[in-house]
Amino acid sequence: MKLYPAIDLHDGKCVRLYKGDYNKVTLYGDPVKQAKKWKSLGATYLHLVDLDGAKEGKSLNLESVERIIKEVDIKVELGGGIRTISHIENILSKGVDRVILGSSALNLEFVKEAINKFGNDKIVVGIDCKNMMVATRGWLDVSEINAIDFAKKLKEIGVKTIIFTDIAKDGTLEGINANQTKMLIDETHLDVVASGGAKSINDILKAKEIGAYGIILGKSIYSNAIDLKEAIRLFED
């Protein structure tokens, strides 16, 4: 199973939000320094989110992303505010390994075009939910779209990998929403990466047991609730 340390970018800095609330920010400083730390502990792939981009619909922290790729030499995926084919093309040209589509993925034709052009190894869809309803625009809006129904439509057009986040759990250290994640895996048989709320090694074990493709680790590794080096040794190596 793949473990993805998360680096959320806000005003060029590495931060963590509580339940996606932009008013509840914890600063962790230079993202490059943080990326180097995760790599030194064994990380092979980073999950990057441009929080400003997610709100504004355009990349606003691409300079930090480029610095990480150049100075740390590690694979990264990037989400947040990616809305056009040319935008995807530009991001991939910077060395990003794969792009995460969020709000823009509600336009299925756009997702289909992106997959046809770049392949489903390069295009991932992030489904962020509140009570299994899809949230958009940096989690500021909650739609009437059911996550499982949406995931099934994405699968039909060629999507292979989903990052599933329960907003109510994100940044809380309350444990992942294993029930909803399992439901999504069982109903769609997609590669589902669990995200939001991991608090201990037990959450990684749960994710593995329900058949998750991977898990994103955020606050748990920043607060040392999970020892990243040990987790990678147990679950990834």
Tell me about this structure.
By secondary structure, this protein is α/β, with parallel strands linked by helices. It has ten helices and twelve strands. The protein has an eight-stranded parallel barrel, surrounded by eight helices. β8 (133-136) and β9 form a beta hairpin. The protein starts with a strand and ends with a helix. The model has no long low-confidence stretch (mean pLDDT 92).
Characteristic key phrases:
237 residues, 38% helix, alpha/beta, TIM Barrel, globular, eight-stranded parallel barrel
Backbone structural class: alpha/beta
Query: Which geometry do the CA atoms define?
Result: globular
CATH topology: TIM Barrel
Portion in helices: 25-40%
CATH architecture: Alpha-Beta Barrel
Number of separate helices: 10
The share of residues in extended strands comes to 25-35%
Q: How many structural domains does the protein architecture include?
A: 1
Distance between the termini: 9 Å
Widest beta sheet: strand line-up: 1-4-5-6-7-10-11-12
User: Largest sheet at a glance?
Assistant: 8 strands, parallel, barrel
Q: What are the SSEs and their pairings?
A:
Blueprint: E1 2-10, E2 13-18, E3 21-27, H1 31-40, E4 45-50, H2 51-56, H3 62-72, E5 75-79, H4 85-93, E6 98-101, H5 108-118, E7 123-130, E8 133-136, E9 141-146, H6 147-156, E10 161-166, H7 178-188, E11 191-195, H8 201-209, E12 214-217, H9 219-222, H10 228-235
Parallel strand pairs: 1-4, 1-12, 4-5, 5-6, 6-7, 7-10, 10-11, 11-12
Antiparallel strand pairs: 1-2, 2-3, 7-8, 8-9
